[in-house]
Structure formats: C-alpha cells, structure tokens
C-alpha cells in the first residue's frame, strides 16, 4: 500500500519546485527584448521611475502558462552594468551573445561607451567590446534592424536623461559591423526624413527597413509631433537610399501616431516578409490594446479578426515572435500602473487568438539576418526582434513589429478608428 505514496511524492516535489522557482517580477516598462535560440532575454527598463539593469530569461523550448511563465533571473550576471532603458538590442551572428547600445536613465548620467556592451549567453558574462573611435554619441528612443552581421540604427534623441546639458535629435543612419567591430555613419541618398525617435523598424527580405510611428521634429527648437501612421520612411540597404511612402488609400488609417507595439522589426521571416503587425500603445492621450496590420505590398492597413480576451491597454511594452506566437511583455497603463504580465497572440491561423499560454514548435534558431529558422520549417510568422519606442514625457513605448511568412487573407475594409481605451 506504500507504493502509491512513493509514486505521488516525486510529482508533488516537482510541482513544489516549480512553484518555488516561479519568479514574481516587478512591474516595469521600456525594457529591451531579444530572442536567441530557445530563450528570450529581457534587459533593463523602468521599474516605478527607477532605471534598472535587471536581466530576465524566458525559456521558449517548453510550454508554459501566461500566469506562470518559465522565467529565470540572471540579474546577478550584471553587477557592473549601468542601468539603462529605451536602448537598442540585437543578437550576434553566431547566436552566442547579444549587444546593447544607447538608452537613457533617471540618474541622468552618460553611459560607458555610450551604453555599448555585449552579453555572452553561453558563459553568462558581460563585456565591453573594443571598437573604433567612431562610436556614435549616446541616444535613446532607437531601434536596431540587422542583416548579414550588420546592425542599422536611425535617429534617436539625447537630452538630460542621457547626461547631456542640451537636447539633440539625430537624423543620421549608423551601422555596426559585428564581424569587424566597426561603427560607421552612412552616407545616404534620397530625401532624409524629419528627425524621429521612439519608432518601430522592420526589415524586409529585400533589404528595406520600414519605419512606423514615433515622434518627429519638423525643425530645431520646435516641439515634437506624433508621426502619422501614413508617413512611412523606407531605408533601402542595398543602395543606401531613403524613400518615403505617403499613403492615399480609401482604407482607413489608424489614428494613433506615436506609441505602439509591433512584434518584429529587426527580424525576418522565411519567405515573403509581407505584413507588419502593430499591437497596443498610446497616442499620448489614450492607451490601446487593439491590433492592426500593414501590408507592405499595397501599403494599406487592415484590422484582423481576433478572438480571446485582449490584454490590458498599455504602452512601454516589448514583443517577440516565436513559432507564430507574439509574446508581449510588461508595459504601463494609465494611471501610471506598471505591468508584469506576459500575453500571447497566436497568429498561426485565422482568426488570430489571444491565448492563455505558449506552445513551442520545432527547434528554433536565429540566423545572422534575424530570421527565425526551424529544423522542420517555420509555421506562420518570422520572429520579431525590432523594438521601437515612443515617448510621452520621460516615459517611452517599446515597439515591436512582426513580419508574416505568407500573404494575408483579404479582410473586409473595416474602420480601425474604434479602440479600447483603458478606463
């Protein structure tokens, strides 16, 4: 009669161990997030008006419930790292490390090497790479898009929160060669867009980087305006050229201009890289929890059908796409309440669905261009690693956008003017 007891005890101990290791993370926002192999790394951010250097790791090799994600805490690996938020992040070509650069902080101090550092995910150690003297000036509100071992960053802003005595906005395009460890300021042709920061950046298969939203400044010493979602600059890597798309379609254009989230960015998908998904965000007055989609063939917006319970309206969140599922992290809502939740939007079939947990697919790795690859092929979307950011005062919105593997089904032309506002 004792045998059933011994069978049950290991199960009980395993369950208790899982409860013991479940992390109760603080609410936070404007962190940087990147997927490497089968883990998502979340660095830094704003925790109740305090900038942190926390490093959390989420295991996506196993299924988990949104109420108990498979978190581990690697913050002890960052004892010498200065706290940062609103910074860029991207993976190394060998997927053994990730880089961070730029950002700002509430201490209003400049960061060492403009916040440039590298974290080795194998050895769990930080380092500061030795680079050429052309390391760009520190700035915040930036997003990196990468391909073939080179990361591209456009725009951004420096001010008292980056340790400057004055405000400076940037309209240059800089690159970092991860093989040669070289920074460059690119000479581009075409009409350079207005100064912009806290935007989304999504790289397509043809080498075009699509910029959506954020804040623009029309001239020096003027106040910043929210960028229209119909104003979409496109940077062409192959010929180092900038062009701008100005939409004039009968399709309604989302009215929110600045802060949103999109699961992708510096990432690609396996085939056509057609659609970019934007979720949540704020226009400075209202907070949203809806989803809109940009078709980069027709440059038109649609609002897809979605089932399930949508997450709380928010800004300052980040997103990553894994196995066709957009995983969205944290953020803040009005009144200023910081969130520590994780939400999953399943895009592998239509209608999309907000689900209660994550389901892993085949073994997933990242290529040098940020593309999600699988031993048996990727289903659904490519992985999103672009994190854009939008600001309202000192608070920023992290944006990610997702690129879809296959063309979207035709949707009825419906208004995207109706948004859910957090009460």
TrEMBL record:
<dbReference type="Pfam" id="PF24681">
    <property type="entry name" value="Kelch_KLHDC2_KLHL20_DRC7"/>
</dbReference>
<keyword id="KW-0880">Kelch repeat</keyword>
<keyword id="KW-0812">Transmembrane</keyword>
<keyword id="KW-0472">Membrane</keyword>
<protein>
    <recommendedName>
        <fullName>Galactose oxidase</fullName>
    </recommendedName>
</protein>
<feature type="signal peptide">
    <location>
        <begin position="1"/>
        <end position="22"/>
    </location>
</feature>
<keyword id="KW-0732">Signal</keyword>
<keyword id="KW-0677">Repeat</keyword>
<dbReference type="InterPro" id="IPR015915">
    <property type="entry name" value="Kelch-typ_b-propeller"/>
</dbReference>
<keyword id="KW-1133">Transmembrane helix</keyword>
<dbReference type="InterPro" id="IPR011043">
    <property type="entry name" value="Gal_Oxase/kelch_b-propeller"/>
</dbReference>
<feature type="transmembrane region" description="Helical">
    <location>
        <begin position="381"/>
        <end position="404"/>
    </location>
</feature>
